[in-house]
Design a protein that fits this description.
Blueprint (H helix, E strand, L loop, with lengths): L1 E6 L9 E6 L4 E6 L6 E5 L13 H7 L7 E8 L8 E2 L5 E4 L4 E4 L12 E2 L7
Length: 126
């Protein structure tokens, strides 16, 4: 599934379109359509923890989000060996509107609940 980037991903402002591919029920791979060398592994944060935040109004408008929108929320994960050493960026969630194939990244700058590099191991066996 391809998505147009409406709000640039931090550090990857030139990426205008990405493709998402499901790896399994937890992980997905996101690849830039312009440069396949730009790729990230993403994780469904809700399998790890309670995760709640407000999408800024400007981002909602750009993504054309309303109360009926089907959204996919994913976070970038840096895969390590062993997998328990992998870290998740909870500060910069990626929001995908699957109704219109638009995507954005927001930065939860005011959040003290979430970290930029939290180990997956801290959420296992809870």
């Amino acid at each position: 599934m391809k998505f147009n980037i409406c709000v640039p991903f931090l550090g990857f402002e030139n990426v205008k379109e990405v493709e998402l591919k499901k790896i399994d029920d937890v992980f997905m791979k996101m690849t830039s359509c312009e440069d396949e060398r730009i790729a990230f592994t993403l994780i469904d944060p809700f399998v790890l923890r309670e995760y709640d935040f407000e999408v800024p109004r400007g981002v909602k408008e750009k993504l054309e989000i309303d109360e009926n929108s089907n959204l996919l929320i994913l976070n970038i994960v840096l895969i390590q060996t062993p997998i328990e050493s992998s870290v998740v960026n909870f500060i910069g969630p990626l929001i995908f509107n699957t109704d219109n194939n638009k995507a954005a990244q927001i930065i939860l700058s005011d959040s003290t609940m979430y970290g930029v590099a939290e180990k997956i191991s801290s959420f296992l066996n809870k």
